[in-house]
Design brief:
This is polynucleotide adenylyltransferase. The protein is of the alpha+beta class and 401 residues long. The protein is built from twelve helices and 18 strands. The strands form six sheets. Strands 2-11-10-5-6-9-8-7 form an eight-stranded mixed beta sheet. A two-stranded parallel ribbon has the order 1-13. It has a two-stranded antiparallel sheet with strand order 3-4.
């Protein structure tokens, strides 16, 4: 792992040099086209119908309304794991959420409110014709189709996020950014693909794309060096810069990379990085109930269809927190480790995941749960965290040999 000291740009559209950008190949353009033209269902809650939409259509609808409301959109980009998938199909990461960034001028609260209203209004366009749209309010649409909304507005960061729900974990995340100091956590998730030339091609061209006839599409690594970041993606290397800027969720992403087979290039720098991330996690989520909500949300959103990997993930997280946490009192540290252990046992029980016995770690305490002889009807009662004994300081989990 290489930790570099290069500063990051505060603007969504940074002044880039030739090393941070690259032209996509034809194969990469094809993968991008399949994502933007593929149909993604947005599932409604209750009796609301599923909205079938192509990403390029929602981008066009939102951008058009923003321009009509005099909100200038500088460009639109594909970000996150979907962008990494376009650049390297066999990275091992796959992609869940579809992250779309609208780099726009958002100078005040009015612009943020306008953007929110625009997205909710655009959802009406995708409702079936049989629905009486005039009776549906923006609040109703929000409750039916929006999984989460986030707004950050301070001196260095001005952005908002609206996430549209998908039951299979492939949410469509619309991010509206005026400025954002930290746009990535690790080099392998630092890629942004500029979509404007391809969106214009969809609008203007009467002929389909071909290897000899397609728009020039640029990819950028906000990590700072495109070819280096792409090499990290190819070889599954964990690398970052300015790790002290990574927020608390970076610890969860780091452990997810470890479980997916990514490895830091430097053992010594890894130790320093882990300490940074553990400290920041406990700064951002100081209360045990906040930690539980964050962990349960991460497991729910990032392991759809991969339930058998949750146990390995929690075991990895337990090891990192146990080894690298230096900012907590002893009882607070044990409390968090107990929470992670409890979630690991719950995962085994809920999904009947029985790992290889040689690699199992047992989390033991006296009888808060019941299991039959063949382990098939194992269940967990609602109990306190696994580490409940306050009188002893010895370790209460042991490897099965």
């Amino acid at each position: 792992m290489s930790v570099q000291d290069r500063g990051s740009s505060p603007s969504c559209v940074a002044h880039t040099d030739s090393t941070s950008v690259s032209v996509l190949s034809w194969e990469q353009v094809q993968r991008l086209d399949s994502i933007l033209t593929g149909t993604i269902p947005i599932h409604g809650r209750g009796n609301f119908p599923t909205l079938e939409m192509q990403p390029r259509h929602i981008v066009k609808a939102v951008r058009t309304r923003m321009e009509e409301n005099l909100i200038h959109v500088r460009d639109v980009r594909l970000n996150g794991s979907a962008a990494s998938h376009v650049l390297h199909e066999d990275s091992g990461l796959g992609y869940k959420d579809l992250d779309l960034i609208f780099c726009a001028d958002l100078k005040g609260q009015n612009e943020f409110q306008t953007v929110k209203n625009i997205v909710l209004d655009c959802l009406l366009d995708f409702l079936p014709d049989c629905v009486k749209k005039e009776k549906i309010t923006p609040l109703t649409l929000k409750e039916a189709y929006v999984q989460k909304m986030v707004k950050v507005c301070n001196d260095s960061d001005r952005w908002s996020l609206i996430s549209l729900s998908n039951n299979r974990g492939k949410n469509v995340e619309l991010k509206f950014v005026d400025s954002l100091r930290r746009q990535f956590e690790f080099s392998v998730d630092s890629f942004q693909i500029k979509l404007d030339s391809l969106l214009l091609f969809y609008e203007c061209s009467e002929n389909p794309m071909a290897e000899t006839f397609h728009p020039t599409i640029m990819g950028e690594s906000v990590f700072g060096h495109f070819s280096q970041a792409l090499d990290h993606l190819h070889h599954k290397i964990i690398c970052t810069r300015n790790p002290e800027e990574i927020r608390g969720g970076g610890l969860l992403k780091y452990c997810h990379l470890l479980v997916r087979g990514f490895r830091p290039a430097s053992e010594s720098e890894m130790k320093s990085l882990q300490r940074y991330m553990c400290s920041r996690f406990f700064i951002d989520f100081p209360d045990i109930s906040e930690q539980q909500r964050k962990l349960e949300s991460y497991l729910q959103n990032h392991f759809v269809g991969l339930e058998d990997r949750k146990y390995d993930y929690l075991l990895t997280l337990h090891g990192v927190v146990n080894e690298s946490t230096v900012c907590l009192m002893g009882h607070e540290r044990r409390q968090t480790l107990g929470l992670i252990a409890m979630l690991a046992v719950r995962v085994l029980a809920e999904h009947n995941v029985i790992p290889n016995v040689a690699k199992v770690t047992c989390y033991y305490q006296p009888a808060p749960y019941v299991a039959d002889g063949n382990f098939s009807n194992y269940y967990i009662a609602q109990v306190q965290p696994v580490f409940t004994c306050q009188q002893h300081t010895y370790c209460t989990w042991l490897p099965c040999n």
